[in-house]
Prior knowledge:
Strand content of chain B: over 45%
Shape of chain B: globular
Largest interface: A-B, 25 and 27 residues
Strand content of chain A: over 45%
Oligomer: heterodimer
Number of helices of chain A: 0
Mean pLDDT of chain B: 95
CATH superfamily of chain A: Immunoglobulins
Low-confidence stretches of chain B: none
Amino acid sequence: EDQVTQSPEALRLQEGESSSLNCSYTVSGLRGLFWYRQDPGKGPEFLFTLYSAGEEKEKERLKATLTKKESFLHITAPKPEDSATYLCAVQDTGFQKLVFGTGTRLLVSP
Amino acid sequence: ETGVTQSPTHLIKTRGQQVTLRCSSQSGHNTVSWYQQALGQGPQFIFQYYREEENGRGNFPPRFSGLQFPNYSSELNVNALELDDSALYLCASRPGLAEETQYFGPGTRLLVL
């Protein structure tokens, strides 16, 4: 069965203090790995889709990377507005549902 | 371009009642999925609709049912509500089965008392 584990559960950073969030996964065949940002009480906002090991994608202060067993979301010089829960999900080649981790709650203090 | 919309935003029901949640998919998107997100957890897949047919289902009992209409909007119905059904219900759409990325709506917060 597909599984996604995210770490840490919560992360507190000072503004400008770069860090990485981890997403470890097991899947029979990877169709895609997804990162979403979720603000409290709102729906997940799409960030990135990664398809194969070695792939990297960037958007503003965020960079997502993928290996055969895990993905990292690197946050460079974060700002308070980057505070949110970051969700990782996988989709396998056999079935179309997304399997999510429980997320990393990020708090960036000024 | 209008994104995914959901209604209502919040509602409160009592145990044993029935509820219907609604979702309008993003323009041009014919595939809609529903997820349940309990507090502090990641979303859990309920089922997916493609061109008005159920196309896959997660580990949810039959009292969770759905519909998709010709305009690709969708409904989630839950019968015989239980306290554990309290959650954020999310709808996600995508242009078709060949497209992997799903775009989520704002969700409906359901509280069962």
